[in-house]
Amino acid sequence: MLRAARATYNGPQSPKGARAISLKQLRIKRGYSQRELAQRSGVHYVEIAQIETVKRNVRTLSPDTALRLCDALRVANPRKLLDSDIDSKAE
Description:
Elements: H1 15-30, H2 34-41, H3 45-52, H4 63-72, H5 79-82, H6 85-89
């Protein structure tokens, strides 16, 4: 008897979605709320929420905003924030 394959949701599969997850993962890893990250970076918490929920693509950020987020998250290489998790899983 054949069983129908059950679809499982593994999160967003687009590079845009993967980048948003990376920002959220980095923020949580550092123990910051969205508002704490906003205070540390000078980036409005609504913008952070939009990036994390894929309503805003991280690639559309200004270099200044990206650097402020990286500084606040203590990320030495901005590519860690800007590159997709999908790329790192393919290695």
